[in-house]
Amino acid sequence: MALPQTYGVEHQFGxxxxxxxxxxxxxxxxxxxxALSVEVKDAQGRVVTVRKDDLRGNLNFVGVLKQGASVPVAxxxxxxxxxxxxxDDVSNDGTNESxxxxxxxxxxxxxxx
Amino acid sequence: xxxxxxxIRTITEQSVKAWFDANAALxxxxxxxxxxxxxxxxxxxxxxxxxxxxxxxxxxxxxxxNFELTVKIYVYSSADDxxxxxxxxxxxxxxxxxxxxxxxxxxxxxxxxTQGKLYMSKFDADDEGVADRRYxxxxxxxxxxxxxxx
Lengths: 113, 150
Known about the structure:
By secondary structure, chain A is mostly beta strands. Chain A contains no helices and five strands. Chain A is flat, with a radius of gyration of 20 Å.
């Protein structure tokens, strides 16, 4: 006889950081990659060794702009989830039936604090 | 540790009521009851009803004890309340404001969750009506919660 499920598996809910001063964060998207990827191939051209280095963290987060708040400027630094990023670009979108949405694409370079 | 219950709706109703009980000072003279009970009903009254529960859609076929719930909180008052006649509507609206204030404190509600965890509570609607000289509001919330771990 099947037993009733009485327990749950907890998952992470929502954006990593909801403490932004200028927007109410709606969503985020984090990616990590390496900027360096060196491959060594054998005589047949098959990859036999890979060296990946120089971690690069790319983050996009979007939120609704708070009244009177200043939108960050591209090229400046910003902290998200306790990590300091450099702002690549900023989008600032509005329509006549919704709140203004601000989105940032930011990058964390391995060797830049 | 409380014994796990088999119904997330029961857990939800009891947890929301626990948070209302912790804030009883905001609702003087107004009993708070759960939706599916045989307790006597008289106005003013607040009824907490976890109307429906669904498996968390983000987890697809394997919801693993994660749920999305629709919770409705009914606030009823009498226009002929002998104690407050003349300001019955004001009192009713004050009760509604208190309910919204209590539910707006999501960290407080999370801390009152009795079993498992409340991820989030979202306000959906506040609908007001009047019938048979009773004022009534229905406040609807969407909650996302999980059973306790094994």
